[in-house]
Amino acid sequence: MTTVPVKSDRAVVLWLFAMCALLALMIVVGGATRLTDSGLSIVEWRPVTGAIPPLSEAGWLGEFEKYKTIPEYHQVNLGMSLAEFKAIYWWEWGHRFLGRLIGIAFLLPLIFFAVARRIDRPLGLKLFGLFVLGGLQGALGWWMVSSGLSERVDVSQYRLAAHLGLALLLFAAMIWIALDLLAPRAMAARHRLAPIAIALLAGVYAQMILGAFVAGLRAGRVYNTWPLMEGRFIPAAYFTGAPGFADLFESMAAVQFNHRLGAYALFAAALAMMIAARKTALYPRARMVFAAVALQAALGVWTVVAGTPLALGLAHQAMALIVFGASLYLAHGSMSSIEITPSSSAGPSGARGSMTAATGSDSAPMTPFQGTRRTGAPSPAATTASAPPR
Ligand code: HEM
């Protein structure tokens, strides 16, 4: 019987959740950087020295001169003042600085926990893998920015989608690992709705990537009506006859319509999941996902009808992360048949919580445990407890 052993540490779990919060903040600041058209204001990639912003008037003028060499300045921002330049610079600098801060806030505790042997080797390796992916995300960010520095006046929507896609994978992996530490998974006892919960999670991810195409093409500033687009359900400009599948990702009409369609499908799927999960332990989580999707769909409609102002664009992006987080929580719950009850975690040194097979009663609520500390070798009960399949 395959089980994931319990060996969690309150500080490690808190640290991982704090990292998730920082990643979410990073994604929202990234959205603000894009929505304020600030993303191309720093035309170089200096991973270390770039942490220091211009400190003198001469420094600012130097940065401004570099910005004046790219097409965006000439075609979009010609004649902008130094003060206006500083405003867009600070957004992009803040986004990059937060990236550096996250790297440090992740690496230093990781080293500490590894040296103090508060994380085991497999977990340490997984987390180190995430650190490497985080570095790759920085490089991907630069690859995205560089696409807007020579011929275009904005970044490639494909690269934007890749940048958001990897950010979401990092966010998901971090949440999943933290949830694993809270509620170990028993592979032999997945909930019968687990495949649907996983499919829903994949659907949310795909919908967010479709959203990145809407954002990348600024397609939220056109077709500002709902439910029809220029008087039709399927906009007339959906097919422009571009070769291959280019239309799907390059025409404003198509990307916005696809994103709408994705939302309708997601709404129906989340509703179906909630109905199917009635009277099972998954219901509270399924209800949470449905509520988040419904709210997000309404917010999306409001955003598009209003022509995507900054505040609504940001709220829509932040809410997307909540939908994603809730879907991860549901999917993880569908794979976790072991419940650890806080009542039995005792002792000043934080003794191990007890584990019960939540699947014994399908309607038992699935509650995250309140944190345990590893104290020597795991007890047999803690390492082998598992539950029958549902
Ligand atoms: C229900 C599930 C939905 C999810 C999970 C979702 C998610 C997202 C995400 C992640 C973005 C990209 C944000 C970025 O990269 O900056 C986005 C953009 C966008 N979405 Fe949605 N969305 C949903 C529904 C809708 C609906 C129903 C509409 C409108 C009918 C809509 C309209 C838009 C618009 C206009 C943008 C572009 C905003 C911008 O330029 O910042 N969304 N969406």
Structural write-up:
It is a single chain. The protein is an all-alpha fold. The chain has two domains: 1-184, no CATH class; 190-335. It has twelve helices and two strands. The protein has helices spanning 10-35, 57-67, 71-75, 82-115, 121-146, 157-182, 194-216, 246-250, 252-276, 283-305, 310-335, 380-384, and strands at residues 338-341, 354-357. It has a two-stranded antiparallel ribbon with strand order 1-2. The longest helix has 34 residues, at 82-115. The chain starts with 9 loop residues before the first helix and ends in a 6-residue tail after the last helix. Mean pLDDT is 86; it is low at 1-6 and 338-390.
State the major sheet: 2 strands, antiparallel
Q: Helix/strand/pairing class, anyone?
A: mainly alpha
> Within the largest sheet, what's the order of strands?
1-2
Radius of gyration: 23 Å
Task: State the assembly state of the protein chains.
Answer: single chain
Distance between the ends: 15 Å
Mean pLDDT: 86
Q: Can you tell me the residue ranges where pLDDT is under 50 for at least 5 consecutive residues?
A: 1-6, 338-390
Shape by Cα distribution: flat
Counted up, domains total 2
What is the β-strand count?
Answer: 2
Tally of contiguous helical segments: 12
The ligands bound in this entry are: protoporphyrin IX containing FE
